[in-house]
Amino acid sequence: MSGISNSPSSTQAGFSNRLTDCPNWVYLLREFDALYRYGSAGGSPLIRGHRKRVRDRLSAAMAINPEIIKRDCEMKPVVAHLPRALDLGERGAMQGMARALREVKDNLVWEYGYERISKALSQKYAYCEILGPQGPVQCENLILGFVLFAPDTTYPQHSHKEIEESYISVAGAWSENNSAVFSPGSLILNRPGDEHRITTGDRDPCLLAYAWTGPEVRLARPDMRLTSARKTKNAAK
Known about the structure:
Helix 2 packs antiparallel against helix 5 (95-104) and helix 4 (82-91) packs antiparallel against helix 5. With 237 residues, the chain is an alpha+beta fold. The strands form 2 sheets. Strands 1, 2, 3, 4, 6, 8 and 10 form a 7-stranded mixed sheet that branches. A 3-stranded antiparallel sheet has the order 5-9-7, with no helix packed on it. The longest helix is centred in the N-terminal third of the chain and has 19 residues, at 45-63. Residues 2-15 and 230-237 have low confidence and may be disordered. It has helices at 10-13, 23-38, 45-63, 82-91, 95-104, 119-122, 216-220, 229-235; strands spanning 110-111, 125-132, 137-138, 142-149, 154-158, 164-171, 174-176, 187-190, 196-200, 206-213.
């Protein structure tokens, strides 16, 4: 879900904190660690391997006490649904993650990740990167973040070149490729190149935590693209 933006360096902004200077970011990353360390792989060796890659890279990143990059908070229209999503998350299985995210919500940079996006989707979707090349917590070989969808959203068919992606539900119900309904705590894995399409329920917003692993050069410049309608139609034949 990550995009590229021109953000000021910590030196330019006169901001030189490290991770251990910012306990709210530490606690949020520990929630990610717990998700990928103690959650079930459901008997899948692919998911088990992905979980290990995420937690190993996260542990290594936290161990070096990375720099925190100060970026100006940026909102998108869908962020109006964030309070409801956090309320739902705090009532269920993902309450620790929801509470930790609430503590940093005023420091999040919400983005689209695409050079071009439809007006309809721009009102109903955005993501924020927590750890990765764009920060705020710096890491070159792992991206962690959140995706927020308004109720009754269709996130179009897309894939990620060379990037392995997992989503874990924090709040709200959603489906991928119309194959099942996923509830808070559920994990779905998309291998590099896997085409996937997300739809959300019509009553409540949906908040997903996500993790990306892949080559550093690709994580730095994901080159996100939505699949064209013609290609999606042909693939369905």
